[in-house]
Design goal:
4-stranded antiparallel β-sheet, 26% helix, globular
Length: 393
């Protein structure tokens, strides 16, 4: 893993483009996934000046400077931060591994090429709930292969490990799990669902499908159910079908908890977590996140292969009926309430600590930022789009 360099981050491409100008008149954004540029594996990702890709170079440089000055105020000691997270929770135990965080960094991709990059984008860091969007993609792979034939079928028809045997849990469908309306009730890996009932620890549960609640225990239940369906470790599925084909590095990791080893197919397998506030989750570099985001921007296509079906990308980014700003473990901007400065077609993988993968189909752009103060993210987006002429000053 590259060491983090403790010197002022360098904005690549922007300064050179300043001398060339860069009118800020946006280049055409409509590019077919078939005709698009795809970066090769390794370090050979094409770079272009901001002006060549429609950005005003001065404004883009200012947006990057704003990001660099907006690092989140978390301690770099993640043990300390996780303790702060869980201090007021009824079940505060940290169950998974963790690592100290790096510093603010990011990358801007337009039409598939790098137009700006700053900080240590190769450093592997925790990503918290960004992991949920990776989990969604593993579900999509199962759907595309016919392993899950009907998203509205109760999970209990395929998963018979006792997790859906109660009268309350029996009706829960794959769709409910994916859009966080399952209301699943039970204990998993030493955490009851009550441990993360963010609508109220002691509230009365509703019928499955009637209440939206962000709940890591239930997401982890989905991960276990997908493990039952795949009959193999989910990181192995992701690596073979997504990360290797898109040319991701070998440095990313996906962890569960010390309590989350289960028996499956005659062997013991770790069931991974869909978040990191109890430890674990997906750890990856900014560059690997950018490749993953670019796959989704290209509707699941990478070069001459459809790794994830266009149909799944549509399903995953369709608003939940009772939560218009949420899809299948992806955040949506449908009503422009999440990030008013981003386009309505934008969608996001979001994790605590200001970890963001932003896909903007309208501007054909992927932006990844890490460790940004959350109250600065919308302003950063406004500045990025202003550099394209897509937002007011």
């Amino acid at each position: 893993m590259p060491l983090f360099h403790r010197y002022a981050p360098v904005l690549l491409g922007v300064l050179a483009a300043t001398a060339c100008g860069g009118s800020g008149s946006a280049a055409p954004a409509a590019i077919s996934p078939v005709d698009a540029y795809y970066p090769p594996s390794g370090e050979g990702w094409t770079r272009k000046s901001p002006g060549e890709e429609g950005f005003d170079s001065t404004r883009l440089a200012a947006a990057v400077s704003f990001a660099q000055a907006s690092e989140i105020d978390w301690p770099t000691d993640m043990k300390q931060q996780l303790a702060l997270f869980t201090a007021k929770e009824p079940y505060p135990d940290i169950l998974g591994p963790y690592r100290d965080r790096g510093h603010q960094n990011g990358i801007v991709i337009r039409h598939g090429v790098i137009v700006a990059e700053w900080g240590d984008t190769r450093r592997v860091d925790m990503t918290f709930s960004v992991a949920k969007s990776y989990l969604s993609t593993v579900a999509g792979l199962a759907f595309d292969r016919g392993m899950i034939k009907d998203l509205d079928q109760p999970v209990a028809r395929m998963v018979g490990d006792g997790g859906y045997s109660s009268a309350h849990n029996a009706p829960i469908t794959w769709r409910m799990h994916l859009n966080q309306t399952s209301e699943w009730e039970g204990d998993l890996w030493g955490k009851p669902d009550r441990a993360d009932r963010r609508n109220g620890y002691d509230r009365t549960l509703g019928a499955p499908g009637t209440i939206w609640e962000y709940n890591d225990v239930r997401v982890n239940r989905l991960a276990l159910s997908l493990l039952r369906v795949w009959n193999r470790p989910l990181p192995e599925v992701l690596k073979q079908n997504i990360m290797d084909p898109i040319g991701a590095s070998s440095t990313w990791e996906w962890h569960g908890y010390r309590t989350s080893t289960t028996r499956q197919g005659g062997r013991r397998i770790e069931s991974v977590s869909g978040g990191g506030h109890w430890g674990g989750g997906v750890w990856a570099s900014t560059r690997d996140h950018a490749r993953f985001g670019y796959l989704l921007l290209r509707r699941g296509r990478w070069k001459n292969r459809q790794l994830l079906s266009d149909r799944w990308v549509t399903l995953a980014t369709t608003p939940a009926t009772i939560r218009p700003g949420y899809g299948f473990l992806w955040w949506l901007n449908t009503d422009r309430k999440l990030y008013p400065s981003a386009t309505a077609r934008s969608f996001f993988a979001l994790g605590a600590g200001g970890n963001v993968i932003w896909m903007d189909p309208e501007d054909d752009m992927v932006v990844v930022v890490r460790w940004m103060a959350t109250d600065k993210i919308d302003e950063f987006m406004r500045r990025i789009r202003s550099a394209l002429g897509g937002a007011t000053q």
